[in-house]
Write a structure and sequence with these properties.
Elements lengths: L5 H5 L6 E6 L7 H8 L5 E4 L8 E5 L2 E5 L12 E4 L4 E2 L1 H13 L7 E4 L3 E2 L2 H14 L15 H10 L12 H22 L8 H15 L3 E2 L1 H10 L4 E4 L26 H5 L6 E9 L2 E3 L12 H9 L12 E3 L1 E2 H11 L3 E5 L9 E10 L2 E3 L6 H4 L2 E9 L16 H14 L3 E5 L7 E3 L3
Parallel strand pairs: 1-10, 1-11, 2-5, 2-10, 5-7, 6-8, 7-9, 11-15, 14-16, 15-19
Antiparallel strand pairs: 3-4, 12-13, 16-17, 16-18, 19-20
Helix pairs in contact: 4-5, 6-7
The structure holds inosinic acid.
Inosinic acid (IMP) binds next to helix 5.
Length: about 450
C-alpha cells in the first residue's frame, strides 16, 4: 500500500466492512476504486446484480473487463467473493475465469456463494423477449435491459419454486427435480411470449449444468460464514457494489432500474454482513453523468457537448458495447444518492474528460410542472417532466492526467470539485484523472 492511500481504509475498523457503491446510473469507475482500496482488506465481496455489470480495471496499460468476479481478484491474498445476493450466469463466470487465467491471474481466492441464484439460458431468452414485447408499454419505452437475464432470474428467486441456486449445480438429483418441473412451465411461457420461440430442452440444461458444477465446485462455499469468520478474526471486508444507486429497485428511477438493491441499502441482505458491521460507505461518481438504456435523464446533452464527453470518456458499455447517453453533472441526483447511502466520502472519476470545456454546467435544481425543487424524485414519470436548472462554472484546459496532487490542478478544476462536495454534502477523497490505477489524486478531504 502506498502511504498516500492508507487513510482510505484506516477508517474501516478491524472486523468491519467498507462498501463502495455507484452514486449515479452505473459505470462510475467503481472497479478502479475497489482495485485501489483492495490491498487493505482481506476480502472483496459482490452482493448484487450479475453479468449486467461491467467493471474495467487498467493495470500496466492492459484493460481487464470484469462482469461477475469482484475487482479484488487482482490482489494476491485478497479473497474475491461472489455473495448470495448475486445472480450468477455460470457460462459468463467460466468465460471470465478463463480470460483471467490466460492473463496469469491467480483464481484460487475466488469463492462463490452456494446460495447465489443461477441465471439459466431461459432467463436470457425471457429478458430479450420481454424487452421486445413490452416496448411501448412501460412508460412508452422498453427498459433497455442488458438482456443478461437479470430480471427473470430475480423474479424466479422471489417466486421461489423452480429457482436454482449455485449449490444445486453439484446436487444432480435436486437439480433434475427442479429442472424437470420448471421446463414445461418455461416453455409454455416462452411460447406465449413468442409462438416461434425455440423450446428449451431439459436434457441440454442438465448436461450444461453438470459441466458448470464440475468446474465451479472448488469455488462454491457458504460465503456468509466465510465473511463472518473473516471479520470475527479481525479482518476487514470491502464490499463491491454493481450497477448503482439510481438503478436501485426501490430507490432508483423506477421502473427504469435493475432488479436488485444496488445502493448500500442492499449490502447486508446480499452478503450476510450484519448492518452494524458496515461502517464505511464510499460513493463513486463521475464528474459528469451517463446512462445506458431507457429512463429519464434530466441533464442529458443530445448535442455536441454530449458527443464530446462520449468520445473523450470512451463512454461505450463494457457489457453491451452500447453508446452511453451523456450529460452534465446532476447535483440534485448526486446529493440524493449521497444521503441515501450516507456516503462518508466520494471518489470522483473521469475529471480529465471535462478538460477543454469553456464552461461546465451543473444541475442545482429542477423545474417540474412550473415549480422549482431541489429534491430528487425517484419516479420515472415525474422525473421525465423535470427541466434542469443549471449553474455554470468556469471550465479548465490542458492535460491533467499527470497531476497527482490536488493543489496542482488548475484553479477552476479545483473550484469544480469543491462546488460538488459542498452541494453533495460529502468530501471528495479521491479524484480520477485517467484510467490507470496510478492516475489518481488522493485527498484527505
Ligand atoms: P438489467 O439490469 O439488465 O435488467 O437492466 C436494467 C437497466 O439497468 C438498464 O437500463 C441497463 O442499461 C441498466 N444497467 C444494469 N446494469 C448496469 C451497469 O452496470 N451500468 C449501467 N447500466 C446498467
Amino acid at each position: 500500500m502506498s502511504p498516500d492511500n492508507r487513510f482510505l481504509f484506516a477508517k474501516c475498523p478491524a472486523g468491519h466492512a467498507t462498501a463502495v457503491v455507484g452514486l449515479q446510473w452505473g459505470d462510475e469507475g467503481k472497479g478502479k476504486a475497489i482495485d485501489l482500496l483492495a490491498p487493505g482488506y482481506q476480502a472483496v465481496v459482490r452482493y448484487n446484480g450479475g453479468a449486467n455489470a461491467g467493471h474495467s480495471v487498467v493495470i500496466a496499460g492492459k484493460r481487464h473487463a470484469l462482469h461477475l468476479i469482484p475487482s479484488g481478484v487482482f490482489h494476491p491474498g485478497v479473497a474475491a467473493i461472489i455473495g448470495n445476493g448475486v445472480v450468477v450466469d455460470p457460462e459468463a463466470l467460466i468465460r471470465e475465469m478463463d480470460a483471467l487465467a490466460a492473463s496469469g491471474i491467480d483464481l484460487s481466492g475466488l469463492k462463490v456463494s452456494a446460495n447465489a441464484h443461477v441465471v439459466l439460458p431461459y432467463h436470457k431468452q425471457e429478458d430479450a423477449l420481454r424487452e421486445r414485447l413490452l416496448t411501448g408499454v412501460v412508460g412508452g419505452e422498453s427498459i433497455g435491459t442488458t438482456k443478461r437475464g437479470i430480471g427473470p432470474a430475480y423474479s424466479d428467486k422471489a417466486s421461489r419454486s423452480g429457482a436454482v441456486r449455485m449449490g444445486d449445480l453439484i446436487r444432480p438429483e435436486v437439480l433434475r427435480r427442479i429442472i424437470e418441473r420448471v421446463v414445461p412451465v418455461k416453455n409454455a411461457m416462452l411460447r406465449a411470449l413468442d409462438p416461434e420461440a425455440e423450446p428449451i430442452d431439459a436434457g441440454a440444461i442438465l448436461a450444461a449444468a453438470a459441466a458448470w458444477g464440475a468446474r465451479l465446485a472448488p469455488h462454491l462455499t457458504d460465503s456468509t460464514s466465510l465473511v463472518q469468520d473473516l471479520m470475527d478474526a479481525g479482518g476487514r471486508v470491502l464490499i463491491e457494489g454493481a450497477n448503482a444507486t439510481l438503478l436501485d429497485l426501490d430507490h432508483g428511477t423506477f421502473p427504469f432500474v435493475t432488479s436488485s438493491n444496488c445502493s448500500a441499502l442492499g449490502v447486508c441482505a446480499g452478503s450476510g454482513i450484519a448492518p452494524k458491521r458496515l461502517s464505511r460507505v464510499i460513493g463513486v461518481a463521475k464528474a459528469y453523468c451517463t446512462r445506458v438504456g431507457g429512463g429519464p435523464f434530466p441533464t442529458e446533452q443530445n448535442n455536441a457537448d454530449g458527443d464530446r464527453i462520449r468520445e473523450r470518456g470512451r463512454e461505450y458499455g463494457t457489457t453491451t458495447g452500447r453508446p452511453r447517453r451523456c450529460g452534465w453533472l446532476d447535483l440534485v441526483a448526486l446529493r440524493y444518492a449521497v444521503r441515501l447511502n450516507d456516503a462518508d466520502g466520494i471518489a470522483l472519476t473521469l475529471l480529465d474528460v471535462l478538460s477543454g470545456f469553456k464552461e461546465l454546467a451543473v444541475c442545482v435544481a429542477y423545474e417540474i410542472n412550473g415549480k422549482r425543487t431541489d429534491r430528487f424524485v425517484p419516479d420515472a414519470e415525474t422525473l421525465s417532466h423535470a427541466r434542469p436548472v443549471y449553474e455554470r462554472l468556469p471550465g479548465f484546459d490542458g492535460d491533467i492526467s499527470g497531476v497527482r496532487r490536488f493543489t496542482d490542478l488548475p484553479d477552476s478544476a479545483r473550484g469544480y470539485v469543491e462546488f460538488i462536495e459542498r452541494f453533495a454534502g460529502a468530501p471528495i477523497n479521491l479524484i480520477g484523472v485517467g484510467p490507470d490505477r496510478t492516475q489518481t489524486i488522493i485527498r484527505e478531504g
